[in-house]
């Protein structure tokens, strides 16, 4: 069949099958936790079509899928606000934290959940079952003292619903990853204190479990200055494994016979920052076979490690993003995706090395003619260094841009800022490229995946290094002749929103911007945020209030007079991490200066939008905004958004 000739049309005006309805309603999001219980597999789906409800899903041995969480429940915890680790499955019983009241519930298949904790101001996450004592050991965050910072500790909870909560380990600011040894004699856990974040400094401890359940004779096994530990796990023979960054890279180790033993040292990342509970980058198919994932050369890979000979073998898969690894004899299950495959729960048969997709985040099939594949680019930045990004060219085989024009560029600044881009198919990104935009998803200095030294580039220099890298990425693409330097946009959410604001305030490269619940006031963030992040800025900016001057100097909200280009703001009215008033101040400054500005507030949304109608509205409004700022026609019928000062 002869290929249809492409129609010449202005960039941004291309008609695309990747619509906002497709992006918002046709997808779910996996929260990253997978559990294997006997022959059954469980995971959690966040469903925009159900107002962002989190649902535990069960796949039985015969392949049937069914929702475990009833409609009136929402399996999501608010420990650290970012949650994760909200459920645990044990011998058919599902234990989960319910978002509305934050109580722990137990549920057997087909039954109504019943609470096993009392009402109150307690939150629970990252639970493990201690079978010998018929209890759950988990992270508890106690908010009963309203005038003080919440207390975090490890607690035990009677799983028979008495409501009894016993404090086991306390005294430090944070705890995570309680893990009981197979014989029930020992408990391992991670802990850290302010001002550290878990990717800066954590300690791995092990204590003995007494007959009454108390923890005694606790000793620190690893961790300390400049060493981050994550994901401790016991294998079935009682050996404790963990991931450490002691060499500058998150690598696999184990504690055996009183010594720490490296398993496969390499310049690659086997771990990820502990933003959420329940993360798992490796699992045990047997005492001798460990299945793991690691990041190297811009992609995630799957591998098998023989724990006796330490032979390391790469397992070939079609995926470039792999996480949430769990394994049992014969197979492994993980979350995976690629530039052409949206995230999916995947089962790998270890004998035949065959993969089977168990559940996709979307059943929507996008014609490859509309898909832009990422190009990993490395570009020069400040101080003779280089930085990284994934570059997506405009792609839609039905259209081509005018020969004398270049496409507009969207620079994406990811959140965190201790985070990273992903090469997995992202329909919200393809929404732009299939309409004629070029997109660069920047892994600025401070991002993960490139070792500790790259991540620590941002120490003391947030608002400088990240901004420089985003600016230099745009300049690099402009100088290559790839994009139109007069139609450059920067967009980001949360911490990425701060980079967006800083770039628009302190630089003059970008011609428009979009902030999704972005940070504009560093001092307000340091003074009024949740416990987990309350000292995050000590390392990124400087100790507060000692270096208050830096907080004022780098806060876009303090230099609003320097704003000179149009911005659209998206905000949830219930955001407890970035209060809406920060965006309001920035928007008001643009209003007073007569610069085009749009402000979209979503009722009932928090930090990150979860409702399908709001995800759709945000995409449409942003596209509409750019069409008016850069003066191009839309191919879709979009409900207008109010743009003030638009002439």
Number of helices: 10
Shape: globular
Number of strands: 38
> What would you call the structural class?
alpha+beta
Largest sheet: 8 strands, mixed
Query: End-to-end span in angstroms?
Result: 47 Å
Low-confidence stretches: none
Report a brief summary of the structure.
This protein is of the alpha+beta class. 14% of the residues lie in helices and 36% in strands. It is globular, with a radius of gyration of 25 Å.
Any chance you could write out the topology, listing elements then pairs?
Blueprint: E1 7-8, H1 20-25, E2 29-37, E3 40-47, E4 53-59, E5 65-67, E6 87-90, E7 93-97, E8 104-108, E9 114-115, E10 122-130, E11 135-142, E12 151-158, E13 165-169, E14 174-180, E15 186-192, E16 203-209, E17 215-223, E18 229-234, E19 240-244, E20 251-256, E21 259-262, E22 282-284, E23 289-296, E24 299-306, E25 312-315, E26 321-328, E27 331-338, E28 341-349, E29 354-360, E30 375-380, E31 386-392, E32 399-400, E33 409-413, H2 427-433, E34 438-443, H3 452-455, H4 465-479, E35 488-493, H5 495-506, E36 512-516, H6 522-527, H7 536-540, H8 548-553, E37 567-572, H9 580-593, E38 597-602, H10 612-629
Parallel strand pairs: 1-32, 33-34, 33-35, 35-36, 36-37, 37-38
Antiparallel strand pairs: 2-3, 3-4, 4-5, 6-7, 7-8, 8-9, 10-11, 11-12, 12-13, 14-15, 15-16, 16-17, 18-19, 19-20, 20-21, 22-23, 23-24, 24-25, 26-27, 27-28, 28-29, 30-31, 31-34
Helix pairs in contact: 4-5
